[in-house]
Each structure stands twice: as C-alpha cells, then as structure tokens.
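User: I'll paste a sequence; please echo it back and then give the predicted structure.

Assistant: Echoing your sequence first, then the prediction.
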Amino acid sequence: MRGSLAALLIAVAIGGAGVACSRDRDSGRDSGFGTRDSKNTASVPEAGPPGAHDHAGMNMPGTTASNESRIPNPESREVVLTPEMIQRAGIQLVEARKGTATTRLHLPGVVQPNAYKNLDVTSLVAGRVTQVRAELGQRVMQNEMLATVYSPELADAQTAFIAARSQLAAHDLALARTQRLFAIGAASRQELEKMDAEKADMTRAVETARARLVLLGIPEDKAQRIASPADVITTFDVKSPIAGVITKRNANAGLNIDLATPLFTVTDLSDVWVIADLYERDFASVGVGSPVTITTAAYPGLELRGRVNYIDPQVQAETRTAKLRAEVANRADRLRLGMFVDVTIAGRGGQAVVMVPKTAVQTIGTQSVVFVSTGPGRFVQRVVTPGDTLGNDIAISSGLDPGDIVVAEGAFFLRAERERLP
C-alpha cells in the first residue's frame, strides 16, 4: 500500500515539472524573439531598411533618386535684391555691345641693342694707351674724351708734314730765283720748267701729309699751325662717336693697340630692339608695321609700344620660325639688354565679339562669370569666355549676346549673395 502511494507521488511530481518547463520555453520564445507578447496581442513590426515605409498601394522612391531630382542648375540660381539693397551695394548696369577684336599673338622676346646705335670705339692711330677716363656703365656724351693714346705714328705723320712744307718753302725760293735769272737770260727755259714741275710734286706731298694728319684726328686749323718739331703732338684723344652708355670696356693703361683694337662699346639705349620668333602659321597675320606691346615681369603694369620693323626672310630649319624685330622707345632705360619680355602683336583682321567693362567679369575657380539682369532686382550668374582687353573693356567671345544687361559695378556683392543661397 505504501509502495503504491510513493509511486503515485513521484509520477505527479514529474508531470508538474514537465508542464513548468513547457511554459518556460513558450515564454522564452515570446519575449526573446519579439513576435508576440504574453500581455499584449499587438504586432511589433520588424526592422526594415532605412527610409522604407510600408504604405499599402504606394511605391516610394529611394533616397538617391529623390536627391538627384532636386539638384538645381548652377546658372538657374537667381539672386533677388530689393531696391534698397541695390542702392546700398552700388550696383550699376550696362548693356553688352558689339565689338571687333583683332587676333593677338603672344610671343616671348629678348631685348637687344639697336645695332645702328651700338658702336665699337677704336683709335685712329696705333700706339699705347696712357690714360682711361671712362668706366663701364658710364653715360657719355658725343665727342666726350674716353682715353688717351701715345702714338709714335702720329708724331711721324706730323714730322713728315713739317718736312714737306719746309721743302716746298725752300723750293719756292729757288723757283723765284730761277724766274729772275730766266728774265735776264741767265737761266734756260728748260731749267724753269723743271723747277715748276718739282714745285707741283712738292705741293702734292704737302697736301698728302696734311690730309693724313686730318685722318689721324688732327683738325685742319691745328694742322696748319704745325711749323716746327716743338709743335708736334704725340698723344691722341679717343672720343665717343655718339651719346650713350659704355657697355664694354677693353682699354687699360699700358695696352698696346692698333687701328682694329676695340677699346670701348658705346650703346644708345634711347630705343632698343626686341627680338622674337614668329612661327610659320602666323606669317599671314603679322607684317612690317604691325603694332606691338611690350610687357615685363620686372615692371608690372608697364606697357611699352612699338612696331614691327623687320621680319627675317629666312626660316630657321630647326624651329620653323623667322626672327621678328620690333623697335621700342626705352624711356628711363627700363629695358636692359638681354632682358626677357612678353611681346603682344595685334594681327591683321578681326572677329565679332561682345564688349563689356573689365569690372563686370569675376573669376570663380577656373571660370570667368558675369551677372546678367533678368528683371528688376533679379540677377543670374553666367559663365563666359573672356578675350583680350581693350582699354577699360574686355572682349567676350562666348556666353553673352549683344544687348544683355550686365552688372558693371557691384558684382562682388552679388557673388557673395549667391553663395548664401541654399
């Protein structure tokens, strides 16, 4: 009896434990996976992808497609200003007008001296340099003394002139005596004619000696005053043939020279030559007389003007270019020999362009833009292609039409306002 009761109690205990374990497993599934709560029968939606909503019967576009459809055109962003803002910003409008822009070439060039005003100074006599009075870079005037040369050759020429004149004077006395003797019959006609012939030869010798002195730099009036060895000049003054600057100096005291020895180089820098290389493709657009503008990084803002005065008729085989030469006035000696410059040449012919003030063009990054008025107080930005400047105006080759109203003053204010737009 007791054994049966014990077995019954064990069976009841085992059954209760199984029911409890089953309830625990059901409760764990409900709370752990979130499909159903034991106290609330409402459904909990599962997490979907970001931005997705479960609306019955409606297809919602994705985020990327929606953003792309709302990206505005950069040139369609309009700036709207009140009359007070326009007045405060000082905005001024002008009308874009038609114009003609000539083709312009931009070439690198180098400054060289005007060869017609770049002279080597030599001595007219051979000898030895005894004194130098000019320094490298010194500005000299025409006929200013540069150096002194001691010349035995010059002394010999004067001595020969003195001797020739003395012989002629003595022969004149003998001729006068012969003429008197011939008059009284004491001399023959043959003797008289011989004396006349000898005088002619001596006169030519004197003139030759005198001319040589003039060629050696002794003036005519000074040569006529040379009558004795005490009057002989042994030194020669080397003078500058033109006014200019000493660009080379080879003379030093004690230097022995001849007629071909260059002592100095004097250069007139009042005008210089600019040499550039002109390519074959540009031959038709440039000719002698074409105006040129010279600019240099050494003097920002400085523009020197001149004209093409020579184009080499021979093309260089290596570069397929011809040398172009322009003569430019060099006031204040700004252009120095050997300096690199930029050469702008106005070519022949022209093309139709739109002209606007230079102040109307703004640079944003790599683009050039202007602001165009589309109505009272309304402005849009427009990308343009600028060209060469002509005075205070600039040529626009694309982006504008004649008659467009553009902002000439105050464009920077509009640019700032446009950047504030969403």
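Residues 120-266 form a domain with the OB fold (Dihydrolipoamide Acetyltransferase, E2P) fold (CATH 2.40.50.100). The helical segments are 2-33, 63-69, 83-89, 152-183, 189-215, 220-224, 411-419.
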